Amino acid sequence: MNLEHIxxxxxxxxxxxxxxxxxxxxxTRALLETLNVEYDYVYVDLTSGEERDEVITELExxxxxxxxxxxxxxxxxxxxxxxxxxxxxxxx
Length: 92
Known about the structure:
By secondary structure, this protein is of the alpha+beta class. It has helices at 23-34, 49-62, 84-91; strands spanning 4-6, 14-18, 39-43, 70-73, 77-80. The longest helix is centred in the middle third of the chain and has 14 residues, at 49-62.
């Protein structure tokens, strides 16, 4: 799975599953960057073939509805959707 990396303050292992065309995903990325969170992300809609299969399999572990955005934190906690208050509380 090819991940894009955004530098910031290390606040745990943060992985964002997003769509390149999703306004809520863009807002989530902007909020993470405002909070100076270091994170990795993948635009699921820009993957294909085996990589897409791998990404979908990983996402299904955390969000069986395959909805976006999905943030996985330290491979144990999950925030589904643009939950601004929860994201702020988690990373401030």
